[in-house]
Amino acid sequence: MFTPLILSAQDKTAAPAPDVVILNNGDQLTGKLERGVGDSILFKSDVVGEVTIPLSKVKDLKSSSNFVVLRKDEKTTRAPKQAEAITVENNTVKRTAPSGNAETIASKDIGYIVDGAIYNKELNGNPGFFHGWDGSVTGGATVLQSTSYGQTYTAALALIRAIPSVAYLPPRTRTTFNLLETYGKLTQPVVPNPNNLPAAQAKTSIFHTDFEHDKYLTPRFYMLGGLSYDHNFSQGLNFQQIYGVGAGYTVLKDAIQQFDVKADLHYEQQKFIQPEQPLPPLPPLPLTPDQNLIGSTFGETYLRALPGKIQLTHSGTYIQSWNNTDAWSAIGTLGLALPVYHRFSLSVNLLDNYLNNPAIGFNKNSLQFVTGVTYSFH
């Protein structure tokens, strides 16, 4: 005799009930409350996907998940927090602890609403070096095909790894990597050309990359170590390398902007492009001596979220040598990223690089205006 094994629905782990939000106009959405920032929440609806809803438009919201609610003026630490059940109604958020104690917070006082599991993972997590990276990649091209012909290509990669990766917890470390390359060649034939002269060529080759690791001692003050490499054909700079250590401070940080200042002490080496020497009996052309320098970098970075999800970035850097005070340089950048479609945006960037001691015969200033298409990883 065989006894059938019957698995009833009660034996299965019941899926959590969906969250339901009712708006002031009577509309109702079913799905999951993901998080809240300020006086708005991000709700993932089963029908319309992710939507941002102001708390002032929510008549009632109940969630089956537990959340950590942080006030705007609350100073977070690395101490764990108890996740609590929450309800939203009448422009307020009510959080109820497992013990039954409840507290009601006005929406204007809400800083963040965070899933409890995510909060504690970000608080205590220590991912490997290859995890947690975010950033973007940019590409652009100009092609000319006529009597004159040539191409110019621009590529950029910007990566950042912040631990924790969320703004509501005090930072521990931050690692950044940037790479920018502009390369082009324009050929101009001699017209007319009865003597069969060779065409003239103009080349552009500008390369920059840098890497920096920050270790936070307080939520705003950090020690840093970094390196950078540069090549700029338009300034006669064949290769520049910098290795330094220093400190930085976050002067301003809120939901829409961040302003950092930093300084370091570094070793810098500059190698310059040397001229092709004429044949005798013409006198030799002067050479530009290579430099081995001890100096400091003073820099600032400003990031701001503009209306329409436009992102503004600005940075300024001044590099001063102490053993050769004439060997100084300055770099300024200004960029806008205008969203176009999903993770794609149109980038518009202005880059100005001033080298006070370029190779003999080269200009001190190098100015670029670059447009391209940017893809953000997250």
Give a description of the structure.
The protein is 2% helix and 62% strand. It is mainly beta and 378 residues long. It has 2 domains: 18-123, no CATH class; 129-376, Outer membrane phospholipase (ompla), Chain C. It has a 12-stranded antiparallel beta barrel. Strands 1, 2, 3, 4, 5, 6, 7, 8 and 9 form a 9-stranded antiparallel beta sheet that branches. It is elongated. It starts with 18 loop residues before the first strand and ends with a strand. Mean pLDDT is 90; it is low at 1-12.
Number-wise, the strands total: 21
Shape type: elongated
* Mean pLDDT level: 90
CATH architecture of the largest domain: Beta Barrel
Using only C-alpha atoms, the radius of gyration works out to: 28 Å
* CATH-defined fold name of the largest domain: Outer membrane phospholipase (ompla), Chain C
Q: Return the string of H and E elements.
A: EEEEEEEEEHEEEEEEEEEEEE
Q: How many domains comprise the coordinates?
A: 2
